[in-house]
Amino acid sequence: MMTLDVDAVRAFVTIADLQSFTRAAEALGSTQGAISVKLKRLEERLDHRLIERTPRQVRLSAQGAVFLESARDFLCAHDRAIAALSSSRRHFALGIAAHVAGPEVPTLLARLNAHDPGLTIEVQLDTSRALLDAFDRGELDAAIIRREDDRRDGEVLGPEHFGWFAAPQFEHRQGEPLRLAALSPVCGVRDISTQALDAAGIAWTEVFLGGGSSVVTAAVSAGLAVSAFSCRLAPAGSVEVSQRFGLPPLPSSEIVLHSTLTDAKSREALRTLACAFREHRASSS
What we know:
Blueprint: H1 6-18, H2 21-27, H3 32-46, E1 51-53, E2 58-60, H4 62-84, E3 90-97, H5 104-115, E4 119-126, H6 128-136, E5 142-146, E6 155-160, E7 162-166, E8 178-182, H7 188-199, E9 204-209, H8 213-221, E10 227-230, E11 239-240, H9 242-245, E12 253-259, H10 264-284
Parallel strand pairs: 3-4, 3-5, 8-9
Antiparallel strand pairs: 1-2, 5-12, 6-12, 7-10, 7-11
Helix pairs in contact: 1-2, 1-3, 1-4, 2-3, 5-10
């Protein structure tokens, strides 16, 4: 009966997730040469090429794409079996920016739990600025935020694009200030939207402010105002109205994972978190 080496399978999944031998080696605390050897042994064991590698690209082969989900299941079963032998529970404090949290969150938490059933996950939702401050104070083990300044550390999980959204029935009368619904004054999305309007010389007035994302979403859905949203998180039924009303383009940002954890098990949990986020975005794009 064929048996598989756990480390070799983990190397394959990490390469597939990060699309890089170098980054995979860093994530696993190994070297690029060792990762390559493990992959080669696994491919020889399965008698299939799993990864296609060129000077510019690392991607799954057809056989690798078929094997990937089974490989994930194999690793999850292994990790659950190991975790079951430990009576100690570990604690993980994770901050997720409220304006980043979306349909990915259940996937992230489910993947973390499957990866490490002995992990107690404490999730905190707040603005990116508040979470970054809490992270700097050591109150959070990791934080997923939207980049709002020139801080360069952290792992980029993906781009974040913004647009102007309103209900299809919303009307903006020419010559009147744009009716704007916005989050609190410390919200970065409010900053970029009002700055863009000011730079374009478009008059605006806030008719809903600081009531939380649910209030802003309700105001937009009811046709009472326009608001800037991440294109991932725009209210259901709303439409992008920048061309319709001549509104200025909004600059894109990035979603970033910050962490200072260094132990191997926590680093693996963070890699699982990052991969789950990327996978969900890719499947829903």
